[in-house]
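Re: weekly structure request thread

Next one in the queue (259 aa):
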Amino acid sequence: MAARPSTRKVRLQRIIASAGLTSRRGAEKLLRAGRVTVNDRPASLGESADPDRDVVAVDGKPLHSDQPLYWMVNKPRGVLTTARDTHGRAIVTDLLPADLPRLFPVGRLDRDTEGLVLLTNDGDLAHVLLHPKFGSEREYRVTVRGRIDERALRRLSRGIRLDDGVTAPAKVGRCHHASARDESEFTLTLIEGRKRQIRRSLSALRHPVVALVRVRMGPLRLGSLAAGAARCLTPAEIRALRREQSRRGDAGARRAPRR
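Done, posted below.
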């Protein structure tokens, strides 16, 4: 008698994220809201399914896994980092070619921050790049008002106490002061991404941010990409992202507490 083919059970939030609909965190929200079904049966958070056999649907529409796509944009100031806006404002997906399938931004830049945004339908990769436990870096070019001294920069590198807790240690690059404008410029590398974290931290140090540009995310660098422009990643960049995903994922698993 021939053996029955084995089933391959995968968490529903991973199936939804891999289909490019949203991130894993967004998939969890869909499950909690009761918007997901498996074989026409309402599903709940924590369930698994076989993507080769079961029909997983969101709002009644079956999911179809897309080929992973990876695009980089240089977000200008005033553009929202979201895939949808109900008020008709400029959003980062407007910068992509119109014929692309649905892609979502990996993380957010606030409206006044410029620079590198990665858009993809690869939810697993997005999870590794965004979750603080994996330690993936994001580097910014920061311009602040006034001459910021070494003491303030050391405080920034050790962590700043904000209303939602102390920020994680950061890497601070060499600082340059432009006396004509009375502004200081330096690079800041983070492994976490709280809402308006850099702006709030510098405000606490009494050096308000004048300009903020993300120039690197993991192994990806903004380079010479013009403001408002978009391009697909090169094969070498995609391979670098895969290595980052594997390396950071393994490191995050080792740091995870045992139950």
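Helices lie at 12-18, 24-32, 123-130, 150-158, 197-204, 235-255. The radius of gyration is 21 Å.
Next request, please.
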